[in-house]
Amino acid sequence: MSESCGSHACGEGEGCASCSDQEKQKAQKLRMSLAKIKNVIVVMSGKGGVGKSTVSANLAVSLSMEGKNVGLLDVDFHGPSIPTILGLTEEKVLGGDEKLMPVEIGTLKVMSLGFLVEDRDAAVVWRGPMKAGVIQQLLSDVAWDELDYLIVDCPPGTGDEPLSVCQTIPSITGAVIVTTPQQVAIADVRRSISFCGQLDVKVLGVIENMSGFVCPKCGEVTEIFKTGGGEKMAADMKVPFLGRIPIDPSVAESGDSGKAYVHHYAHTPTAAAFSKAIGPILSLATEPVS
Questions:
Q1: Model pTM?
Q2: Of 127, 168, 156, which is closest to residue 40 (Cα–Cα)?
Q3: What is the torsional sign of CA 22, 25, 31, 33?
């Protein structure tokens, strides 16, 4: 574990001879923060453009609507979408009691790098070690307090950010994998499942997003991208399948206008699919992950 000292949370604690006193203090601070969080769930996809951030935001809001204390952490440094999806682009993070205060929507607590950069058009040009350090800070230096669930929206792929999250958090509850039905997406998403296997992260299930288009006037379903590809992949990879999320123009509209879809369109088939997808997540044990 000492190889990760200086860039990740060291699992050796006080017994690590390679850690400086400052590093030990950081590790202790991280452990104390994570001890208050019962379940940490990472949302991942090996492919960009599959609606992963939309799924992350709506899963978090759905859990919050069920009366759970939920945090949503956006670690997509190069394209943080959560502030836009939830209508928080003008929000700024404030400090208090030596910690950053997350932006709150009801009982949902949200943190994103998008809140911390002054120029939203500026490119974030960071190497892996810097990203790892910032992810550790967002976990330990934010006042998450007591949470039933922390949803972590990772960028696409299996690179620095997902790796840093999995290495920094000693006991992730599991991962939700997002795909679309077509083969060009599924081929890449399979790598996310393999990635979880290599890091001993449990796959809670696969969500097949953009699975058919439900006509808002007649209710007829048109298979624009076909359907069932994600479900078949889940069966082939021997992981659970959480459900299909159909295409609904209101999802794009709600995301652009900053309205949580599952809250404002609660009676639609797509919102019902989101609600069904969180069923297995709600049934998770709620013991602290420390």
A1: 0.84
A2: 168
A3: negative
Question: Using an 8 Å Cβ cutoff, are 76 and 85 in contact?
Answer: no
Give the relative orientation of helices 183-198 and 229-236 as an angle to the nearest 10 degrees. Answer: 30
Any idea which architecture 33-274 has in CATH? 3-Layer(aba) Sandwich (3.40)
Q: Which residues pair with 70 in a beta bridge?
A: 108, 149
C-alpha distances in Å from residue 116, one per residue of 81, 126, 189, 192, 227: 13, 15, 30, 28, 39
Chain segment 175-220, per-residue pLDDT in tens: 999 998 888 788 888 989 999 999 999 999 999 988 878 777 776 7
Rounded CA separation 155/75 (Å): 7
128 vs 48, 49, 83, 125, 165, CA distance in Å?
19, 23, 23, 10, 12
Low-confidence ranges of the chain (pLDDT < 50): 1-4, 6-7, 287-290
Distance between CA atoms of residues 267 and 262, nearest Å: 8
Helix segments in the chain, DSSP class H? 21-34, 52-65, 82-85, 128-140, 160-168, 183-198, 229-236, 249-257, 261-264, 269-277, 279-282
